[in-house]
Amino acid sequence: MGLDDRIDELWSDGTWRYPIISGLSSMPFVIAIQHMDIEFYSVVPPFLAGFVAGLWAVKNPVSSTRIGWRAGVVGGLSLAYGGLQFLFSTSQIWFSSPPLFVTIFTPIGVSLVILAYIVIYGIIGSIGGMLGNWIWNNFGRTTNLTLQ
Pfam families annotated for this entry (predicted)? Predict the structure, then answer.
């Protein structure tokens, strides 16, 4: 099974298609917020991605929490950009004969922090997915339209 087959399988599955669409659409906003150094609002894009995916989750048998989680994780992958930017901005320290533990543990530590933030974005996305599904179920329009 090649990469193309795997991508086609993910795209044809509605439980991944909607999180990929909403997560990818939140990535530019996450990167823009990283550049503006606004800390608090960085949770808004994964929340909205999970919210939108939770609205779409009504069509799928998978829970809205799982779909929101996936949307938050996909949107959180853009945090790797900020981590790489940090690593390259501290590269001057690396080349001025640093101790070995700084050279080894800085990329490992930054990778662990990025991974932790991606998990947090997944949790925020799952909360947005639950809320989106709840709003759709309670306030969404009915699908049975009657002609009069």
Answer: DUF5518 (PF17647)
